[in-house]
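Run log // design_07
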């Protein structure tokens, strides 16, 4: 064996293999843990010993034991791999620290799992600073295209190009919104057909074409085409018009809250094939690594509700 081994040629893969063999003291069991055949593992340990210039194991047909040199090397190899792991984690944290993650299209109220993901990436050691924007679906996709936003939340992905990735993160129940004096205001659930003769207040289709089309499909599945009385720019205006008795509307569960003058009534599924729910999609450019964005996406995926369904809040009157 060479007297002066080339230490710089020892690969971390060999260190990890050595540590498993040193723990098992059996090449067959170690090979199973490492998901490899035994002969290549035995050859790898011989190669490691040759690189180091010392014997790490005493081998016989009955047993495998560490030599004195092997015992010392095991301790040092464990320390080296721990240091390497810590170094990679710290470098990743430094790379992400103080970076800005631009998220658009979602008001976090009503989405506890998104708030938890946001808190995770904004806290140490990641330390990402979040910038939140509001915009129409068209605006959000344009921001993603121009790389001025990192992640967007939209109601439909039918128009996404191949350079975008997406994931459905929520399936929200829908609620009818009526003014407090409406005959249906005291109901806890209603069939959508009960609103067939009402005038509706909707957000303008250009703000979210997929969402608007989804509501129309639900109404048609319930047997009617809604009469549109007013189009508005935001939910606050929508609720104000409903409170004034100028129409009724349909909103996702995340909008449900105590609001004076209006009542929220759960909408029953028009049919088993057409549930009264609306999806929420997370969309981002599929263009390679982006540490803050990728950390946020991973945090959302870990925390999103089972089967991507937001818990349905109870309306408070």
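design_07 sequence
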């Amino acid at each position: 064996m060479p007297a002066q081994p080339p230490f710089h040629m020892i690969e971390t893969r060999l260190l990890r293999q050595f540590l498993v063999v040193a723990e098992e003291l059996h090449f067959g069991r170690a090979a199973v843990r490492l998901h490899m055949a035994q002969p290549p593992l035995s050859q790898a340990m011989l190669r490691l010993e040759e690189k180091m210039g010392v014997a790490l194991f005493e081998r016989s047909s009955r047993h495998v034991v560490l030599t004195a040199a092997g015992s010392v090397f095991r301790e040092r190899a464990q320390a080296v791999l721990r240091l390497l792991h810590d170094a990679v984690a710290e470098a990743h944290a430094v790379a992400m620290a103080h970076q800005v993650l631009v998220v658009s299209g979602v008001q976090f109220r009503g989405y506890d799992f998104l708030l938890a993901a946001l808190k995770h990436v904004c806290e140490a050691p990641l330390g990402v600073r979040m910038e939140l924007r509001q915009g129409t679906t068209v605006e959000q996709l344009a921001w993603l295209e121009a790389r001025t936003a990192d992640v967007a939340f939209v109601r439909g992905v039918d128009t996404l190009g191949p350079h975008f990735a997406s994931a459905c993160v929520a399936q929200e129940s829908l609620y009818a919104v009526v003014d407090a004096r409406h005959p249906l205001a005291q109901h806890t659930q209603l069939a959508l057909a009960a609103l067939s003769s009402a005038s509706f207040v909707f957000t303008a289709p250009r703000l979210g074409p997929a969402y608007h089309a989804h509501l129309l499909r639900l109404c048609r599945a319930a047997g009617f085409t809604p009469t549109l009385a007013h189009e508005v720019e935001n939910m606050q205006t929508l609720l104000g018009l409903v409170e004034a008795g100028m129409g009724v509307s349909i909103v996702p569960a995340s909008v449900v809250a105590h609001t004076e003058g209006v009542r929220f009534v759960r909408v029953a599924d028009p049919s088993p094939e057409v549930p009264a729910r609306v999806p929420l999609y997370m969309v981002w450019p599929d263009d390679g690594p982006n540490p803050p964005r990728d950390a946020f996406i991973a945090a959302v995926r870990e925390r999103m509700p089972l089967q991507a369904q937001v818990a349905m809040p109870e309306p408070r009157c």
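Residues 49 and 55 are 6 Å apart (CA to CA).
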